[in-house]
Prior knowledge:
Chain B: Keywords: Signal, Transport. The complex is a heterodimer of chains A (about 350) and B (about 350). Chain A is built from 14 helices and no strands.
Amino acid sequence: xxxxxxxxxxxxxxxxxxxxxxxxxxxxxxxxxxxxxxxxxxxxxxxxxxxxxxxxxxxxxxxxxxxxxxxxxxxxxxxxxxxxxxxxxxxxxxxxxxxxxxxxxxxxxxxxxxxxxxxxxxxxxxxxxxxxxxxxxxxxxxxxxxxxxxxxxxxxxxxxxxxxxxxxxxxxxxxxxxxxxxxxxxxxxxxxxxxxxxxxxxxxxxxxxxxxxxxxxxxxxxxxxxxxxxxxxxxxxxxxxxxxxxxxxxxxxxxxxxxxxxxxxxxxxxxxxxxxxxxxxxxxxxxxxxxxxxxxxxxxxxxxxxxxxxxxxxxxxxxxxxxxxxxxxxxxxxxxxxxxxxxxxxx
Amino acid sequence: xxxxxxxxxxxxxxxxxxxxxxxxxxxxxxxxxxxxxxxxxxxxxxxxxxxxxxxxxxxxxxxxxxxxxxxxxxxxxxxxxxxxxxxxxxxxxxxxxxxxxxxxxxxxxxxxxxxxxxxxxxxxxxxxxxxxxxxxxxxxxxxxxxxxxxxxxxxxxxxxxxxxxxxxxxxxxxxxxxxxxxxxxxxxxxxxxxxxxxxxxxxxxxxxxxxxxxxxxxxxxxxxxxxxxxxxxxxxxxxxxxxxxxxxxxxxxxxxxxxxxxxxxxxxxxxxxxxxxxxxxxxxxxxxxxxxxxxxxxxxxxxxxxxxxxxxxxxxxxxxxxxxxxxxxxxxxxxxxxxxxxxx
Lengths: 347, 344
C-alpha cells in the first residue's frame, strides 16, 4: 500500500513539471467533468414522446435515440422485418469472433464463412423460405456498415495478396500491371472511386447490364482497400529474409508453394499491425458511401436528424453513432494486439 | 497442388458470393418499365423534413414523396408500389439520366439551364419556394434592405450566397457573408449571435423559426423573397408519355382542390352532377384513355394521397413542425400560384 502511494506520488509529483501537469489536469477534470455528467446523465431525458420534455430538462436528449434507434441502426429496412438484419449482424459477429479465436482450422473457417455468408445474404435478401424479399436499396444502418467493411476486407484480401506478390514478381508485365493498379487506385481518393462506381459505370454499361448499387460500392471499396492492403502485405514480404525463399527453392517447392506455404504466413504475421490499422480505417471509411446514397450508419443518423421535430439534438445523434464506431474499432485494435502476442508466443 | 486447387476454388466461390446479385433489366420506355416492374422508382432527397424524409419506422413521408406516390398510382392503379432512392444533390440528375430512377421528386429548382442542358424535363411545380431572411425582432427591421452592412449566416453548396450577392449589389448595399458547411452549423451560429440574419429558403426558415428558435415570437421572417426557387418533378426526355402523365397528375391534384374533391369525399364526388368533376374522376369522358391510363386514374390518386391542399397540410402545413402557410402555394383563386390547366 505504502509502495503504491509512493509510486503514485513519484509518477504524479516526481518533478516540478510533472506536478504542474498533474494539477492542470485535475483542474481540467474538476471543471469539465461535472457539467459533462450533468448534461449526459443527471439532466438528461431518457424517454419522451416529444422533444418538449427534453427542452424542459435541458440536458442530453436520449429520448431522440429512443425514438429513432431503429432508423439509425437499420436504416429503411422494413420495420417488421428488422429481426433479420439483427440476426445477420449477430451471425457476422459470431463468425468473426470464431475465426479470430484461431481455435478452428482453415477448412472449418472457410466452410463456416461460405455457409455464414449464404445465410446472411438469405436473411437480408429474403425471397425464399417464407421470408419477404427485401431489395438491397432498403438495406441500411449498422448491418450495411459491417457488411461493407467485412465484405470489403475479405474480398480485398486475395486481390491484395496477388497484387503484393505480383509487385515483387520478376515477370515485367505482371509487375507493371500490379504497380500500375496499386499506384492508380492509391492515387485517387475513395470518394472519387465511389463516384466512378456509382454514377459513371451505369452510364457506360448498356441498359440490361446494370449492376446493383450496393455491389458497385462494395466493388469500389474492395478495389480501394486491396491497393492499400497490397502495400501492407508487401511490407510484410520484405521482412521475410531471402534465406527462407532460397531454402524453400532448395527443397524443390514451386513458386506458389513457396509463396503460400513459406513466405506469406510469415509475411502476414509481420503485417498484422498494418492490416488492423487499414481495417479500422476502412471501417470508418465506409461512412463515405453515404455520399452515393447508400444508407450506412452515419447517413441513417443524419436522416434521423433531418426530422424537424428532433433536429436540434445533433450532438446526441452523433455521440450515439460515435460510440458504436468506437466500440467496433476498439475491438479490432484489441484483437490485433492479442493476435500479435499469441503469434509471437507460438514462434 | 490439390491443396492449391481447393484454395483457388474456395476463393472463386467467395468472389462469386460477393458478386452474386445483379439488377433486373430496364425496359424500353419509362411507363412500360414501370408497368413491367410493378413499381415506380423515384429519386428523393436524403432527408429534408416535410419534403422527403424517412420517419422513425423508415417509411418515406413528405410532399415530394407523396407526389411520387400519386404518379405511381396513376400508372399502376391500386397495386402501385414505389421505390424511393435517396440521392444527394450531386448525383440526382445522373441517376435519372442513367435510368436508375424513373423520376426525380427532389427539391431541385427549375431553371433554364437545367431544363435546356441536362436532357431532362421539368413536369411542373409542386412547391414555390424562394430565399429569404430570418432576423431577431429586437433589430426592428422592416425590409431586407435594412440589412445594409450586416453579417448574414448561410450555408455553402447552395446558390444562397450568390443570390444574396446579386441582391445586395443590385440595390447598392453591402453585407458580410458568414458561410458554413451545413445548414445545421449556420443555424446554430445564427442563434448563438454570430450574425444579424440567417438566409435560406423560406420553407426552411419557417421551420427553423417554429422548431429551433428559443422563442418563435422573438424572430421574424422579412417579407422580401430574393430568389425564385420553384421545385418540381423531373423526368427524362426519352418517354414523353410519361412526362405528360406526371404533368397531368400534378394538374389533377390541384384541380381536385379547386373543385373541393378530397380523399374523404372522393367516393361521393364520383356520383357528382358537375361535368368537370365527372371528367376528373372518370365518371364520364375519356381523359384517362388519352393519357394511356384507365378512366379512374385520378380517382385512385386522390383516394390514396388526397388533393394538393391535403398533401400540403399533411406534410408542411400549419399543423406540422414546419408550420408553413400556403402563400405562393395557395390556389390562384386565393391569391397563390397553383393553377390547374383545364382537364377536358
